[in-house]
């Protein structure tokens, strides 16, 4: 998985009733766009994310 600052990351719920989380990548800490990513989620909290198979990245519009 590769991402850039400003991209959107979506984390899909893995259990029934668990909602999807969405956030903006504000820092890429891996080399060449690789994880981990510092993400600001839509509810305002920030966290370091090592995305798994339940995640997808959408490139930001330039």
From TrEMBL:
Domain of life of the organism encoding this protein: Bacteria
Any one Pfam family match given in the protein's UniProt record, by short name: DUF1918
Residues annotated as domain DUF1918: 1-57
Record protein name field: DUF1918 domain-containing protein
Organism whose genome encodes this protein: Saccharomonospora glauca K62
